[in-house]
Structures are given as C-alpha cells and as structure tokens.
C-alpha cells in the first residue's frame, strides 16, 4: 500500500520493534511482523498482531513483570 504518513513511499513486509508500557511494566517485542515504508521507515502493525501484543502485555502486568524483552511469536 501507499504509505499514509509520507504519501510517497510504499510499504513492504518487514519486522518492527514494539515497546509497550503499562503501569510498572515495560515490554519490548522484537521481530514483530509489520509493513514498513521504504521511504520514511514508518512501521504499520495489523490489528491481529497488535491485539496479540496487548494480550501478552496484560498477562505480563498480571504476572508482575517489570521489564522484559521478547521475540514476537504469533499466537
Ligand atoms: Zn512513508
């Protein structure tokens, strides 16, 4: 698709790093599948993937995790 941020690049499948912070918990996910703009580098994560990340973040908050680095694994 055409990048909605810069409107001149095209997005291509790639990977992103996503940081989620909630209360005292900080989670950093690596290798999250994303569409990445070849012009400005903006990363776009689809709804299913972001829902998985939020679900994982909520579980981590309940488990009392403070800081954690994870590789993204599709649920
Ligand atoms: Zn762009």
UniProtKB/TrEMBL annotation:
InterPro entries: Znf_MqsA-type (IPR022453). It comes from the Bacteria. NCBIfam families: YgiT_finger. This is Type II toxin-antitoxin system MqsA family antitoxin.
């Amino acid at each position: 698709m055409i990048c909605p941020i810069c409107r001149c690049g095209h997005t291509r499948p790639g990977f992103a790093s996503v940081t989620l912070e909630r209360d005292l918990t900080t989670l950093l996910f690596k290798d999250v599948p994303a569409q990445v703009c070849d012009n400005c580098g903006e990363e776009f994560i689809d709804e299913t993937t972001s829902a998985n990340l939020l679900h994982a973040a909520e579980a981590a908050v309940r488990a009392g995790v403070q800081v954690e680095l994870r590789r993204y694994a599709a649920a």
